[in-house]
From TrEMBL:
One Pfam family recorded for the sequence: Tctex-1
Origin species: Anaeramoeba flamelloides
Upper taxonomic lineage: Eukaryota, Metamonada, Anaeramoebidae, Anaeramoeba
InterPro entries the UniProt entry points to: Tctex-1-like, Tctex-1-like_sf
Protein name: Dynein light chain tctex-type 1
Top-rank lineage group of the source organism: Eukaryota
Length: 103
């Protein structure tokens, strides 16, 4: 398994652990995203990869709303990288991205 797939699995596991049986609650979104990000960073640090990480996570209530997000990076494509994962249940989406920058 390559690093990107391994990191996607970490994102998926952390998202499932925190959100699996939850219903969207606006008051809890900040807490949930913070816990997801902290868990992902903890797992990544245990891997001992030679990366500095940036992790972002957003939770969006399902409904008749749209959402668009865009990101751009200036880095070395042969060494640095990113991956994203969209988790969802019946009432919300959680979109998490991990950026790995070599040092």
């Amino acid at each position: 398994m390559d690093k990107v797939e391994e990191i996607k699995d970490i994102i998926k596991e952390c998202s499932n652990e925190i959100l699996q049986k939850k219903k969207y609650q606006h008051a809890m979104v900040n807490r949930w995203t913070t816990v997801i990000i902290d868990k992902i960073l903890g797992e990544l640090n245990q891997k001992k990869y030679k990366f500095k990480y940036v992790v972002t996570s957003m939770i969006i209530q399902k409904g008749n709303t749209g959402m668009h997000s865009s990101t751009s990076c200036y880095w070395d494509n042969s060494l640095d990288g990113n991956c994203s994962y969209r988790w969802e249940n019946d009432n919300m989406y959680c979109i998490t991205s991990v950026y790995g920058l070599t040092y």
